Amino acid sequence: MIKNIFETEVANEIVDRINKLKPTDKQHWGKMSVDQMLTHCNIAYKYTFEPAQFKKPGTLKKFFLKKFVKKLVVGEKPYPRNGRTAPDFIIVGDQDFEKEKAELIENVIKAQNLGTTYFEGKENHSFGSMTAQEWNNLFYKHLDHHLTQFGV
Asked: Given 49, 51, 121, 136, which residue has the most CB atoms within 10 angstroms?
């Protein structure tokens, strides 16, 4: 069972893990640097809180995403190491570690404060309407995957 990131203690646990990251941390797998990973994780929240920044998928692509990708992203099964990343989530070049870290902490706290009521039935940019449990799984599973990637 995936932990509930909308619970204060779980959100605080994630924030504590983020705070343990250092700009010199090396990944245990994958290609992203720690600053790129922070930016990458912030994209999921930008998709949620600022969806107008991104081009909406067309009808065919949205059907494909809902039918074949959604379950992998919001289901209970952990992400595999070295899995494929959607183009909007690929980060290149150096990023501002401290800025991205602070933004990610703000995003985790914002989502936790909004809580399950806010997220129940909320539209996702790629997957359509989602339950609060699906939002929880998306947020927690993604963060846990990448924080584990960097050993925290």
From this structure: 136
